[in-house]
Amino acid sequence: MADPKRVLLAKPRGYCAGVDRAVETVEQALELYGAPVYVRKEIVHNRHVVETLSSKGAVFVEENAEVPTGSVVVFSAHGVAPEVHDQAAERGLKAIDATCPLVTKVHQEARRFARDDYDILLIGHDGHEEVIGTSGEAPDHIQLVDGPDSVDKVTVRDPEKVVWLSQTTLSVDETLETVDRLKQRLPMLQSPPSDDICYATQNRQQVIKDIAADCDVVIVVGSRNSSNSVRLVEVAVQHGARAGHLVDFAHEIDDAWLEGASTVGVSSGASVPDNLVADVLAYLAERGFGEVEEVEPVVEKLTFALPRELVRDLKAAELAKAEAK
Ligand code: SF4
After folding, report:
1. Per residue of the chain (325 residues), what is the pLDDT tens digit?
2. Which of 97, 103, 268 to probe ligand 1 with, by most ligand atoms within 8 A of CB?
3. Residue 37, SS3?
4. Domain spanning 6-15+199-295: which CATH class is it, in words?
5. CB distance 141 to 113 below 8 Å
6. Which architecture characterizes domain 102-185 according to CATH?
7. pTM (whole model) above 0.90
């Protein structure tokens, strides 16, 4: 008799508090100010989210220079360098900052250590928007360390005054390896005051670690430019899954991946709405993987309030409406 086919469905998966807030920010801004609302960079790294918001009137741009004077611009969840705020003010834009509060926390750490004249080693991926934004807080003090193999290139002014910080969406294990290598070179290296890799990244990786060894294949829903989604596939394979694949949509699944498989793991990155996971489950069910067991080692409850500048305008609009009655 053939092995029973099943799906191990990871939870937590999908939207984190920072993504939820960023998407809601654009939706509420569209409702309040009307289209178009400009969004600098992808609000979150997910194709479906960007396409859906575009269809509602959001216009995605690369730089403030593309936004007409006086328009509303939303900054993405990944954060921006201070100069981006300055440019927006110079152009007379109404800026709403949807930077995730956990990224803002890393920016604050960078400013504080720079003020105290530390050399800051920022562990992260070269070119990622979050890294560009954080580096912009203290360009003269920050140098990027892009994984364990970059450690040998690091040079510091005073080995007793060095701290490491990190991008929020890295692999926990690889970051620890990078820090170990850094500490071999710089024994006095200080750690950030609290974890920079955010709770959502850590939780999504943890549940993948828990299920990977039981899975013949792990399918992660997420976009290629989503750092935390890509990391989930890597973690799955490192922790025992025979194979791991990243897909934006269910139709990208190759049936060959399922050949001979009895257990398929499913998860999704922090910028992925759950309807895309539902599509994957439906696709798998059609191929015999109808039994779904959800594995939830950690329960997430965190939520973030909307950006202050948006909340203020929403309240003013409410008040005006009430007075007009
Ligand atoms: S992945 Fe983490 S840092 Fe990024 S938006 Fe979500 S909660 Fe914030």
Report:
1. 556 899 999 999 999 999 999 999 999 999 999 999 999 999 999 999 999 999 999 999 999 999 999 999 999 999 999 999 999 999 999 999 999 999 999 999 999 999 999 999 999 999 999 999 999 999 999 999 999 999 999 999 999 999 999 999 999 999 999 999 999 999 999 999 999 999 999 999 999 999 999 999 999 999 999 999 999 999 999 999 999 999 999 999 999 999 999 999 999 999 999 999 999 999 999 999 999 999 999 999 999 999 999 999 999 999 999 999 8
2. 103
3. strand
4. alpha beta
5. yes
6. 3-Layer(aba) Sandwich (3.40)
7. yes
User: Which residue do the tokens 């922790």 mark?
Assistant: 239
What is the distance, to the nearest Å, from the Cα of residue 200 to the centroid of all Cα atoms in its chain? 9
In a 3-state reduction of DSSP, which class is residue 127? coil
Establish whether residue 23 lines the binding site of ligand 1, counting it when its CB lies within 6 angstroms of any ligand atom.
Answer: no
Report which protein residue has its CA nearest ligand 1's atom 8. 18
Binding residues: 16, 45, 78, 100, 128, 168, 198, 226-228, 271
Question: Measured from the CB, is residue 270 less than 6 Å from ligand 1?
Answer: yes
CA distances for 220 relative to 9, 23, 138, angstroms = 10, 21, 35
| Domain definitions of the chain by residue range | 6-15+199-295, 17-100, 102-185
Residues serving a catalytic function are 130
Closest ligand 1 atom, residue 169 Cα? 1
CATH number of 17-100: 3.40.50.11270
Rounded to 5 degrees, what angle do the CA atoms 96, 99, 100 make?
135
Same CATH fold assignment for domains 17-100 and 102-185: no
The answer to whether residues 142 and 122 touch, using CB atoms and an 8 Å cutoff, is: yes
Q: Across the strands, what pairs with 60?
A: 39
